[in-house]
Amino acid sequence: MRVVVNAAMSADGKLSSKRRDQITISGPDDFDRVDALRAGSDAVMVGVGTVLADDPHLTLDDPERQTARRERDEPAHPARVVADSRARTPTDARILDDAATTYVFVAESAPAERIEALEAAGARLVTAGEERVDLASALPSLEREGVEQLMVEGGGELIFSLFEAGLADELRVFVGSKLVGGRDAPTLADGEGFVAEFPELELDDVERVDDGVLLRYAVV
Ligand SMILES: NC(=O)C1=CN([C@@H]2O[C@H](COP(=O)(O)OP(=O)(O)OC[C@H]3O[C@@H](n4cnc5c(N)ncnc54)[C@H](OP(=O)(O)O)[C@@H]3O)[C@@H](O)[C@H]2O)C=CC1
Ligand SMILES: Nc1nc(O)c(N)c(N[C@@H]2O[C@H](COP(=O)(O)O)[C@@H](O)[C@H]2O)n1
Questions:
Q1: From 3.40.640.10, 3.40.50.300, 3.30.70.860, 3.40.430.10, which CATH number describes the 2-219 domain?
Q2: Is the minimum distance from the CB of 50 to ligand 2 under 6 angstroms?
Q3: Across residues 67-83, what is the average pLDDT?
Q4: Is the ipTM of this complex over 0.90?
Q5: pTM of this prediction?
């Protein structure tokens, strides 16, 4: 399975503000590129921090892309995936509507009543890891469901973990022309941070998009 990490960051490397609420960094062309990347992916993943902060839908905006998927005998929208150790995803979250299949990765320690609530809301639960979702154990379950390309949209905690576990194949970053600042504002890769054995990236392409730059890296 190919794992493509995509995010939009400010010129100073922030994914959002210190309030951790969503800010618009991409312009129209970049949002369209993201829609196309979603359309070419079998599943789109975020961490529960993003679900709680943004209540994203993670579906396709462009009806023609939905039609093209249906014509390929694929569902109109890619599946949605949340890494959510404690099953904190609200049952009325937009990702749990019936627009697409939604997988929630939980840890063994997740409260049983929360798991039942999410299952009742239509989520497909995958348990991996004792206290925290073990991504290396969880991702193969998507592969078994036919996911060949997984797009990861963030946030910074999840992106760090994917790099830490050596699970990311590609990184696409839109660098917008905004300065956000704030030492506590989320960055592209948060987590514990690396102090050695920093993941190496190979710059494959640079393109001007909107009033910013799209960087495409292969993970070495
Ligand atoms: N500009 C952009 O492109 C994007 C911006 N954002 C922004 O990012 C912010 C949210 O990012 P962030 O707070 O980092 O949250 P994340 O979306 O990265 O979610 C992090 C949470 O996921 C859960 N999780 C479960 N398993 C793992 C694991 N193995 N590794 C890491 N996390 C795991 C953890 O909660 P638990 O322990 O409970 O499981 C963790 O706190 C928001 O402000 C949002 O607006 C988000 C996406 C894209
Ligand atoms: N690519 C991109 N550019 C930005 O400027 C952003 N703020 C984000 N945020 C991500 O998009 C998700 C919202 O998805 P829906 O429109 O609700 O489907 C949000 O949760 C972030 O993951 N992305």
A1: 3.40.430.10
A2: yes
A3: 98
A4: yes
A5: 0.98
